[in-house]
Design brief:
By secondary structure, the chain is α+β, with helices and mostly antiparallel strands. The radius of gyration is 27 Å and the shape is globular.
């Protein structure tokens, strides 16, 4: 795996940086000339009291024409190779920026209008409690940090300010350790790791999440959602039509549930425990869903050797939803203090204690899930005439995770930077959606779509060479921490059955591995080098062992000449092995003609 990288010639990243330069100049100009500034999204996207256009709408006026200092600053940052592609030369980038601002303003004002209408309805129904809660939610939406909101809408880059990060607060807990801890996660991961009832180890202590952080006069955004019983199509909104059927399969939706977005973070239990011999308690329940495919590109068709056409489409600004439901039933959440707990048979609706003050709280609880909504890049794949039915979910999930692992290996993309889910095409066919987990997307999904043939071949090789039973799977082929909830459905056999319909077979080197070995946990570059050595008649080494005083993991070792083969760059490992008397050979730097003579013949 290559070192972490950011492709500076990525058009979407370059465009967002151009936007940041333009908006910084706009903010500075308005402050210096008009004495105005904006901290919150609500005020930036709302018209003035005198009927004047919103500050966001006035960006177009500022950039018509583009001030020379802004144009010069952008050209200094954006690579020349893509300046024309994003419209720097002809000024068309301004139109794109203004379009994105208009969309963001529409969404903001629509949210504000919706909640104002709901507040009026609550007043007319004399439901003052609901009205007060909706009023606090309205305040939350209006008070969102402007830079964070613009980044969430893919207008500004996120790399400088991780706006979706939330904290598990421990400063109020017993002892001195909590005050010095900073436990934070991206919100899409925090809704699982910090879900109420889950435990984490930090600072030598065991911390239990006990609820959601509450802020004065602010309320968490809450929406209704549901999924199709048959195909898992996802819908969410402030209101949902109970009579509507799934548009993909015409089957009824499941029951309507509610989720909240815990954007203020989580609160740990005041009681701190010592670390125990058994693993921390954790519940993983929920899934990722495609709410909207966003702006879809023209398809990248790929014809398999079996004649099945695979359509790959790349999408930008796709809306994803990650839902954590605590194992299925959801969480009890107190609307007053934020106390929360997973709902199960042992759950009690009796009085609970405030998670911060530890005082008894008589607030009422409601059942909710936790969610995070965000926009990113996606790649959608649909497989021609290959049939789908509800009994085939396991097969398609297996193919999905095979493709993710294949993409990671083939294109050297960190597996943590991509993930996937099942979805549906507009014409009702089952599809696989792979998406960037990098904030706002970095183009990884598009690269996967453009290199589909290579990705599929690596996926087939991976599931073929693994030595676990075909009826199951393991962490060497399909499983990962992220897909733990699907482990019982994933199998090499399921993935291989669909690859067989595509008539894609593993490369001969994978079927007949080096020295007849099946190397399940070895990268393709190492396998290829070992295959070349085996064909040269080199003696079979010890594979995948730990060596030296500090038990350094190596790919292979020939003990008699003392030659070790390693992958990646690790100065401490390499110097340690050298001091133990080994000759260290890096896979990335080696030449087969120079290496083979150093090794014993078989």
């Amino acid at each position: 795996m290559r070192i972490p990288w950011i492709p500076i010639e990525n058009e979407r990243i370059a465009r967002r940086h151009a936007h940041s330069i333009a908006l910084a100049a706009y903010f500075r100009d308005r402050y210096e000339n008009d004495g105005v500034s904006w901290r919150f999204a609500g005020e930036f996207f709302s018209p003035g009291s005198d009927g004047q256009d919103s500050p966001a709408s006035q960006v177009r006026t500022f950039l018509t024409p583009v001030p020379e200092r802004v144009d010069a600053a952008i050209r200094q940052v954006v690579p020349e190779s893509i300046a024309s592609a994003i419209g720097i030369d002809d000024g068309s980038w301004v139109e794109r920026l203004c379009d994105l601002l208009a969309i963001a303003e529409h969404e903001m004002r629509n949210d504000l209008d919706t909640y104002r209408e709901l507040i009026e309805q609550a007043k007319e129904a004399n439901n003052l409690g609901l009205g007060a809660r909706l009023q606090r939610t309205l305040k939350t939406i209006e008070s969102r940090q402007l830079l964070g909101y613009l980044a969430n809408k893919n207008i500004l880059p996120k790399y400088g300010f991780p706006v979706d990060t939330v904290e598990l607060r421990t400063t109020h807990c017993e002892g001195d350790v909590g005050a010095s801890l900073e436990l934070s996660r991206d919100l899409s991961q925090a809704i699982y790791d910090y879900a109420p009832g889950n435990q984490v180890v930090a600072g030598g202590k065991l911390w239990t999440s006990r609820g959601l952080q509450k802020l004065p006069k602010r309320e968490l955004v809450e929406l209704k959602y549901r999924t199709c019983v048959a195909c898992q199509q996802f819908q969410c909104g402030t209101e949902l039509d109970v009579e509507e059927v799934c548009p993909s399969c015409q089957q009824p939706f499941g029951k309507i549930r509610r989720f909240v977005v815990p954007e203020f973070g989580f609160v740990a239990d005041r009681k701190v425990e010592d670390v125990k011999p058994e693993p921390p308690e954790r519940r993983w329940g929920g899934s990722s869903y495609v709410e909207n495919l966003g702006d879809i590109s023209d398809p990248f068709p790929w014809q398999s050797t079996g004649g099945v056409e695979v359509q790959a489409r790349a999408g930008t600004r796709a809306r994803m939803v990650v839902v954590s439901d605590g194992g299925g039933a959801g969480f009890q959440l107190c609307g007053r203090c934020g106390w929360a707990a997973p709902l199960d048979r042992k759950s009690s609706k009796s009085a609970h204690k405030h998670p911060v003050t530890d005082k008894s709280c008589e607030g009422s609880t409601r059942i909710v899930s936790l969610a995070h909504r965000y926009e990113t890049d996606i790649a959608e794949f649909s497989f021609g005439a290959i049939a789908y039915d509800n009994d085939a979910v396991g097969r398609w999930l297996s193919v999905l995770y095979a493709l993710l692992e294949g993409a990671s290996e083939a294109l050297e993309i960190s597996r943590d930077d991509i993930d996937g889910t099942l979805s549906w095409t507009p014409d009702g066919r089952r599809s696989l959606v792979l998406f960037d987990t990098v904030p706002a997307g970095a183009g990884a999904a598009k690269r996967i779509a453009e290199n589909l043939g290579k990705v599929i071949q690596f996926a087939v090789d991976r599931v073929t060479r693994c030595d676990c039973g075909e009826e199951t799977s393991c962490y060497g082929c399909l499983r990962s921490f992220r897909n733990e909830r699907h482990h019982d459905k994933l199998s090499r056999q399921g993935a291989l059955s669909i690859f067989a319909e595509l008539k894609v077979e593993a490369t001969p080197e994978v079927v007949d591995g080096p020295w007849g070995e099946t190397l399940a946990y070895t990268s393709q570059s190492v396998i290829e080098l070992l295959l070349k050595l085996s064909k040269r008649g080199v003696q079979k080494p010890e594979l995948g062992v730990d060596l030296g005083q500090h038990y350094w993991p190596v790919e292979a070792v020939w003990m008699k000449p003392g030659v070790v083969l390693v992958e990646g760059y690790d100065e401490e490992r390499d110097s340690g092995l050298a001091s133990d008397g080994y000759t260290v050979v890096k896979v990335e730097d080696t030449d087969i003609d120079q290496l083979a003579p150093l090794l014993p013949a078989g």
